[in-house]
Amino acid sequence: MGNCCRSPAAVAREDVKSNYSSHDHARKEAGANKKQPITVLAGVPKENIEDRYLVDRELGRGEFGVTYLCIDRDTRELLACKSISKRKLRTAVDIDDVRREVAIMKHLPKNSSIVSLKEACEDDNAVHLVMELCEGGELFDRIVARGHYTERAAAAVTRTIVEVVQLCHKHGVIHRDLKPENFLFANKKENSPLKAIDFGLSIFFKPGERFSEIVGSPYYMAPEVLKRNYGPEIDIWSAGVILYILLCGVPPFWAESEQGVAQAILRGLIDFKRDPWPNVSESAKSLVRQMLEPDPKLRLTAKQVLEHPWLQNAKKAPNVPLGDVVRSRLKQFSMMNRFKRKALRVDTNGKGTLDYGEFLAVLLHLRRMANDEHLHKAFSYFDKDGNGYIEPNELRDALMEDGADDCTDVANDIFQEVDTDKANISFFSPFSCCRMHY
């Protein structure tokens, strides 16, 4: 398993002892034959990222960029570097999107709940966003590891998320992709700050301005996004979805297909009957309802959410564990997300955006991918020994590569859901239509 269960800092401190030159030559030679490399960042001289930073191992991979651990060669400070390949910047719109992400991160004020950007630079191959390192893990992973999870803890997390929303809206920014994976803890300490880390889909807005581009992750999309007419209110909806999941372990709008998820969002029916909702305070349920108000004009603003009694009296919120069922659901939800991210790492457009047809047909698309190069590569990623089958230990090891704890139970759950004989998954088994969380 190598370094999967050790912090990036621990690994880096050992790596720094090695000679820097081992990485230099390979990276300097990469892309040497490119023709007329594009310039993305105006006024920023092109320079080899390796001249100033040691770019180390991969920390994570999103739809648009790969994040690496990096070390400032002068100060030895440990940082994170999100590298966006220029090969994925095929149009002027793509380039504008990257410029906007950099502009937004520079525009937002320094805040303990937002990852800070140290600098943005580029070379012939990629644009690099050098940021503070958050090594405390993803939001849901921390909750699962803690074992004792309460309304009070959910209130603290919700306050941080909505404070990020309030800050964005105050400075004319819609986040557009609020989801648990985009919040990391700064460090491993119990009182570590929780930070928003990804503004790749964020956009500047003016009062009254409306947008029509469908972006984000389906479970967290507001109904007006699907209707292609939205404003900053969508961030409150997404935060409300996260709060619902924090309190019960599953999304409020769930279906067997992504088309079903879209239909459930548009129906807007919220289930407060399943466990543990009968034991959740009425104040918490009231806030969820008001954040998941279908009419954006009636939905609470960030300021109103923060003024809600449940958050105002967060320290008085019930400190009784929400139960093992919530923790188990969160663990499965988190691991299925991890499974999805790994299976879809061979990125096609690198944008993280969905057009309406793509969103409504994702499941059908996955089922048709049986002969697609993308799925073959994804399957091969899990099939470590190349025998044509994904076995339980291979799935478990792949899930643990991101630093998660023992994933045996979750791997077994995935096999029960995906496979028929529970022994292994072949390329032509239901792997190709597994329910993956977008």
Automatic annotation (TrEMBL):
Catalytically driven reaction(s): L-threonyl-[protein] + ATP = O-phospho-L-threonyl-[protein] + ADP + H(+); L-seryl-[protein] + ATP = O-phospho-L-seryl-[protein] + ADP + H(+)
CDD domains: EFh, STKc_CAMK
SUPFAM superfamilies to which the protein is assigned, alphabetical: EF-hand, Protein kinase-like (PK-like)
Binding of ATP, residues: K82
Presence of keyword ATP-binding: yes
Keywords: ATP-binding, Calcium, Kinase, Metal-binding, Nucleotide-binding, Phosphoprotein, Repeat, Serine/threonine-protein kinase, Transferase
Enzyme Commission no: 2.7.11.1
Name of protein: non-specific serine/threonine protein kinase
